[in-house]
Amino acid sequence: VIQECYVQNTAREYAKVYAAEAELLEGFGEVPEIIPIFLVHRPANNIPYATVEEELVGEFVKYSVRDGKEVNFLRRDSEAGQKCCTFQHWVYEKTSGSLLVTDLQGVGMKLTDVGIATLAKGYKGFKGNCSISFIEQFRALHQCNRYCEMLGLKSLRSTHQKQRKAASMKSKNLPNSSTVKKTLPKKVREPRDFIPSEH
């Protein structure tokens, strides 16, 4: 429960900075908000800890599934969905690819129950609650939209393709063990009057 609060409220802080940057842009419009979650201690109760947050009323949509796959058309085609994808891209770029807010879901622009993926070593002392594979999948599958362009975010497609191309070039340049001839050096006889040098 404590980890859940920590993750959501950390993501909320990133969302506030994102909103501050996006709101300065003409035509960007409303920005997604991650609602706060509070930890409540109830010592007299059988379950002593609980979380409390604002009730969201309306159609609940998953804009960003945990594994980062671009499959939900409601997410990809709606304004809220595109802005959530842009928020993920923005966080990814701001943290140099070390952190990704994922599992974005909620009603309209109000989001809750989010997750965070970090590299194995974490990011600035923070470790997320999602697998590092979500970062890799996001990098491979994210498609920039007009909000990414408005914020001046760099395309992940070209970066990912460059990394894949470099990896494939390395593997092409490495000799294949099945094609390398195995030749053993011939035994060399030393002359009997050989005197080792002192250099």
UniProtKB/TrEMBL annotation:
The keyword Zinc does not apply. It is found in: Basolateral cell membrane. GO terms for cellular component: basolateral plasma membrane. It catalyses: L-threonyl-[protein] + ATP = O-phospho-L-threonyl-[protein] + ADP + H(+); L-seryl-[protein] + ATP = O-phospho-L-seryl-[protein] + ADP + H(+). It comes from the Eukaryota. Pfam families: Alpha_kinase. Residues 187-199 have a biased composition (Basic and acidic residues). Its EC number is 2.7.11.1. GO terms for molecular function: ATP binding; protein serine/threonine kinase activity. Residues 1-156 form the Alpha-type protein kinase domain. The keyword Kinase applies. Residues 170-181 have a biased composition (Polar residues). Keywords: Cell membrane, Disulfide bond, Immunoglobulin domain, Kinase, Membrane, Repeat, Serine/threonine-protein kinase, Transferase. Residues 161-199 are annotated as: Disordered. PANTHER family: ALPHA-PROTEIN KINASE 2 (PTHR47091:SF2), ALPHA-PROTEIN KINASE 2-RELATED (PTHR47091). Protein kinase that recognizes phosphorylation sites in which the surrounding peptides have an alpha-helical conformation. Regulates cardiac development and cardiomyocyte differentiation by negatively regulating Wnt/beta-catenin signaling. Belongs to the protein kinase superfamily. Alpha-type protein kinase family. ALPK subfamily. This is Alpha-protein kinase 2. It comes from Cuculus canorus (Common cuckoo).
